Amino acid sequence: MPLSDTLARVDSDLAAGRVPVARQRLRGLVSSFPNDLMLRRRLAEVYRLYGEPAEAGRWMYLEEDRDPAETSAFEARYGTAVQRMRALAWQGSESLAQTAFAGEQLASVRAACSDAMGHSVDWDTVPSGEKEVSERSSFADFLAGAGCLVAILAFLAIWVNGVVALFD
Predict the structure, then answer these.
(1) How far apart are CA 59 and CA 41, in angstroms?
(2) What whole-number distance in Å separates Cα of residue 71 and Cα of residue 83?
(3) What is the pLDDT of residues 92-144, one digit of tens each?
(4) How deeply is 146 buried, as exposed, middle or buried, from its count of CB atoms within 10 A (0-12, 13-18, 19+)?
(5) Measured distance CA(38)–CA(2) in Å, rounded
(6) What is the pTM of this model?
(7) What is the CATH number of domain 3-128?
(8) Packed helices 81-88 and 100-117: angle between N→C axes, nearest 10 degrees
(9) Which residues contact 93 (CB under 8 A, 6 or more apart)?
(10) What is the CA radius of gyration of the chain?
(11) How far apart are the C-alpha atoms of 24 and 18, rounded to whole Å?
(12) Is residue 88 exposed (0-12), middle (13-18) or buried (19+ Cβ within 10 Å)?
């Protein structure tokens, strides 16, 4: 379905109060056209209807006239550069941005992500966050392992108790 037809359906959905359907259509459009700032803006407007400032900030992040409170909510929800880079879901280089401000924002996020990862990254190979996962505390790893061990021992104790009871 052409972009204009889908946008007409979005308008119809919004007029009829079908906000979730409009949001889903816009999410699909942004997925298909990730570099279209107008679609991102429309999606942010729908998230405002939901009262979701972090998501509105996410989709307005590349706009100069963005709301500072929404931007802060987005940055708080997606606390690292890697998370922000994934959340922005841009494709291609910053040179594809329709405005200088958007290009600067994209370059800034990519540079911060490259610094965090310790190597150069680009928008077409957004990091999966392996470094973030590996930086988890060893104490948390210990607790997870201890919890698994306790669960296995409890299961074995119940099983042994059941077998003993069966033969008594």
Answers:
(1) 6
(2) 14
(3) 989 899 999 999 999 999 999 999 888 989 888 776 654 444 444 567 777 78
(4) exposed
(5) 16
(6) 0.72
(7) 1.25.40
(8) 140
(9) 122, 123
(10) 23
(11) 10
(12) buried
For residue 58, which of 91, 90, 97, 88 has the smallest C-alpha distance?
Answer: 88
Tens of pLDDT, residues 39-76: 999 999 999 998 999 999 999 999 999 999 999 999 99
**DSSP conformational letter for 64:** T
Amino acid letter for position 24: Q
55 near 26, Cβ under 8 Å? no
What residues have CB less than 8 Å from 57, skipping those under 6 apart? 44, 66, 67, 69, 70, 71, 72, 73, 74, 75
Which residue is listed with tokens 């966050």? 129
Q: Are 23 and 46 in contact (CB under 8 A)?
A: yes
7: which 2 tokens?
């946008």
Closest CA to 35 of 97, 101, 85: 97
Note the residue count of the chain: 168
- Asked if 54 contacts 74 with a C-beta cutoff of 8 angstroms, the reply is yes
Q: Are 122 and 155 in contact (CB under 8 A)?
A: no
